[in-house]
Write a structure and sequence with these properties.
Number of helices: 12
Largest sheet: none
Radius of gyration: 18 Å
Distance between the termini: 36 Å
Number of strands: 0
Helix content: over 70%
Strand content: under 5%
Shape: globular
Length: 240
Amino acid sequence: MLDRGDIAGAMPYYEEALRGAEAVDDDAKIEVQRLSLAMARYYLGDEGAAADVDRHMQSLATTSAEPQAEVFEPLWRAQRTWPSDPSNAIATLRSIVEPATSHQTRELGGRWLARMAFRSRDAAALEIGARATDEVARLSNGPIRVLEGRWTRALAAASAEGSADLDRVATELEALGERLAAAEAWADAALAAARAGLDPDPALGRARELYAACQTFPILGPLPETRWVDPAGDPALATA
């Protein structure tokens, strides 16, 4: 339900699952549901929930090391690090995505790596993220995976053509009901348009509308992302 943007609507299901896990005394599942609830609170704007996310992630790392879940802790760490140290955030994700064999890590981690690297103009990291996501997309028949592959390929194109394809990806994600993913794609499209000297306002407006509808915020920073139109002027990158 998170990619569909119904974060508040997901919480009763997490609470029900938590009660079920507690009833059978399943420690790992209890931590998973507590983590899910903390993440939902954070994405709904509760900054104080970040400490709970950290605590539950650390607990899960010692009680349940499932390969398909390996991406979540590095992704969370990268997202939290991103505002103050984008280079470190990218290095964190690159270190888990580049050697990964798990499709979950290559798709989800690769997509976020590509989005971050696109902003900082880290061509090598962008290629790694785009290739990882695209490889998973090429093994899939589902429309969402296919769109995710197109999304990261468009980021790698870094041109007016890439901007237009990002518009199309965002529109198609919306049509599939993936509101939060669509908001993120529209945010990417707005930045790509600004860099290409095109009008970013239509994409920017749609991103804002969808983030508001999801009751959440853009993880990579407030809109418009003027910081990344000319990253040469960004102090965090100048000293990285």
